[in-house]
Design goal:
By secondary structure, this protein is of the alpha+beta class. It folds into 2 domains: 19-54; 58-168, Nuclear Transport Factor 2, Chain: A. The chain is built from 6 helices and 4 strands. It has helices spanning 24-50, 58-76, 78-81, 87-94, 98-106, 164-168, and strands spanning 108-122, 125-137, 144-156, 159-162. The protein has a 4-stranded antiparallel beta sheet with strand order 1-2-3-4, with helices on one face. Strand 3 (144-156) and strand 4 (159-162) form a beta hairpin. The longest helix has 27 residues, at 24-50. The chain is globular. The termini are far apart.
């Protein structure tokens, strides 16, 4: 009867023992651990690069567009804010007579937005209700103050923009 030895024996000619990490079993284990480390490092790098944040929702993008538009309107006036509107609104402003354009430039709007709510998105169009205080002052007229207003927007090239022109034609 043959006896089995439990002591490591060198493989003939290779200089490796069966328990060495260089055997096929040990190599597979090292390879698996190496791949796992690379995967974990890639996930961690992606998390750090993107901050773990996903793309803002349409509601968030719409609220940002509204606040940005009204902030520009409040600080820099109608003509500056016009750059943040849809193509149809920009075309309407461009088509105004010189007198009407001057009236736009002289008008002021003081805005305090408390809340943007009830956002409804239909394809590339959206509507949202703005709560706060919006006071429009046109030279020669009494100020007009509203506490709530609906705002219409259009998504152009992936960017939500104020878009009142089509809403005014409905």
């Amino acid at each position: 009867m043959a006896q089995i030895s439990s002591t490591p024996v060198e493989a003939s000619g290779s200089g490796l023992s069966p328990t060495s990490p260089q055997t096929p079993m040990g190599t597979k284990l090292l390879l698996a651990v190496g791949v796992a480390i690379v995967v974990v490092a890639a996930v961690a790098a992606a998390f750090l690069a993107f901050g773990g944040k996903s793309e803002p929702s349409a509601d968030q993008q719409i609220e940002t567009a509204i606040r940005d538009f009204y902030s520009t309107l409040d600080k820099d006036g109608f003509v500056a804010a016009n750059a943040k509107t849809c193509a149809a609104d920009r075309a309407e402003l461009a088509a105004l007579s010189p007198q009407a354009r001057e009236q736009f430039q002289q008008a002021t709007l003081k805005v305090r937005i408390d809340k943007v709510r009830d956002v409804i998105v239909t394809g590339n169009d959206a509507k949202a209700t703005i709560d706060g205080t919006l006071t429009l002052t046109v030279p020669g007229e009494a100020p007009n103050t509203e506490n709530s207003t609906d705002e219409h927007l259009r998504n152009e090239d992936g960017v939500w923009k104020i878009c009142s022109a089509p809403a005014n034609k409905r």
